[in-house]
Amino acid sequence: MTWHGPTFRISDGERIDGAWCLVRRRHDLLDEHFVEHLFVYADGLITCGGYDATDLAGLERLLATGRLALDPPHARERPEEQPERSKWETRYPEPRTDESFLAEVADEIRRLAGLPTAAERLQDAVLAHTEQPTPQRRLQLREAYLAVPAHLRVFLLGDMDRQDRPLRMLLTDLGDAVDGDGPVATEEMHRHALDYLTDLTEAVERARRSRAVRYADDPPGLPVPPVAVDEAVYPGGRPTEPGLFTLRDDHDAPFTYEGRDYPTVSHAYWALSAADPADHDRIRAAATADRARELAGAAARRADWSGVRLAVMAGLLRAKFDQHPRLADVLLATGDAPILHIGTSEAPFWRDGGTRGGRNWSGRLLELVRSELRCARSGQTPAARTAETALRAATRTGSQTGENGGA
After folding, report:
1. Are 183 and 176 in contact (CB under 8 A)?
2. Which of the listed residues 181, 214, 247 is the one where a domain comes to its end?
3. I need a labelling partner for 142 at 20 to 30 A (CA). Which of 21, 245, 323, 391 fits?
4. Residues 318 and 249 reside in one and the same domain
5. Residue 190 lies in domain
6. Alpha-helical regions (H) of 93-231
7. How far apart are alpha carbons 290 and 308 in whole angstroms?
C-alpha cells in the first residue's frame, strides 16, 4: 500500500495531520467496486472519500462486510492448478490481508501522531539484542518482528538480496525449520544471523554519525520562510522608509565602482557588459534602469560576459551596500531567510519564477553579501574581501581607458 500526503483537516481550530491511500468501495446498487480515497489522521479518525467518518474498529467492519476492499474481488482468487509456493524460497512479500492492512493503518496513525512505529520499535529491539544477546531480548525481538504488518516485513532490513531472512533465521528455535519449509535452524545459523544484524546496526550508526557531521553547521530550529523581493510600481513615489524594494538592482542608490559612478546596480551591470566603451558610457547615463537595459540589449556584449557576470554582480552589490549603510541594515534585517528575487524585468537566470522555474541568482548573491556584511560587522574579514581586488581585475575589459573608457 502506498501512502500519500501530506494532508490535514481542521478540527475545533486545530490542524490534524493525515495521509491517504487508495482502496475499493462497493456501490450498493450496482454491486461493483470503485476506487476511493481512504484518509487516516493523527487522532485516529478514518474517512472514506472525505466522509463516512469511522475509526480502526469501524474500518475492520467495513472490510469484513465487503463494503471496502483492498483489491478487486477476483484479484484474490487463487487458481487451483497453481502450486503452493515455498515461503522460504519466495522473494516476494507475504500477501496483504485485511488483518495486515489494519495493522498498517494503525502504524500510519502512530506515525502521524509522532509515536514510534512497529518498524522503529523493531530497530530498537535489534539494537538491544545485538548489544547483549539474551533469551529475554530475543523474545522481545520476536514480538517486535511479529508486530510489523506481515506484508511489510521483507522490507525491514532494506536488503534486496537477504530481505528479512536474517531475522527469520534468528527467531526460529533451534531444531525447527525456518518458515516451516526452510533449513533447520542451528547455532551456527543463529551466529551468522546475529553477526549480520550486528554489522547492520554498526553501519546504521556510522551513517548517523556521518550525517551528524555533514549537517553540523546547519542552523538550529525550523527552516526560516523566504523573503520575497518583489518588483513593484509606486505611482506616487517610493516610500520614504527603506523597505525590501531597496534590495532590488533598479533601486536608485548611486554608488562608485572602480572609479566610476553609477545610478543603480542595473546601470552598472549592463554598462559593464558592453564591449564598446562608447556603449558603456551611454548605458551608464541612461535616464532609468529600464532604459539602461534597453540600450544594453542593442549593444554588443563582451565575449567573456557569461563567464564573469556573476563575479561582476557580486562586486556591484558589495559596493552598493558598503556605500549605503542604511540599505545594508535592510538587507541584514532579513536574518537568515532565503531571499527570492521576484519580477518580470529580469531573465530567469536572475529571478525566482516559482513553479515556472528560475535560478534566482540575484537572491543568492544578496544572501552572500548579507553573510559578508554580518561577518564584517562582527570584526572578521571574509575571504571574499581579500580576493576582491584580483576579482575586479579579472572582470575588467582590456579596453579600459579611464573615466570615460570602456567597462
Report:
1. no
2. 214
3. 21
4. yes
5. 118-214
6. 98-112, 118-131, 135-147, 165-170, 187-214
7. 22
Number of domains in the chain: 3
183 shares its domain with 234? no
Span 303-344, pLDDT tens digits: 999 999 999 999 999 999 999 999 999 999 999 999 999 988
**DSSP element (H, E) containing 337:** none
Residue 111, Cβ neighbours under 10 Å: how many? 19
d(CA 278, CA 285) in angstroms, rounded, equals 11
Q: What would the DSSP string read from start to end of 269-330?
A: HHHHHBSSHHHHHHHHT-SSHHHHHHHHHHSPBPTTHHHHHHHHHHHHHHHHHHH-HHHHHH
Q: Is residue 294 part of a domain?
A: yes
| 263 and 390 Cβ atoms separated by less than 8 Å | no
Residues 194, 201: Cα–Cα separation, whole Å: 11
Please name the residues in contact with 288: beta carbons below 8 A apart, sequence gap of 6 or more.
250
Q: pTM of the predicted model, to two decimals?
A: 0.65
243 and 291 in a single domain? The answer is yes
Q: Is the peptide bond before 235 cis (omega within 30 degrees of 0)?
A: no
- Residue 310 inside a domain? The answer is yes
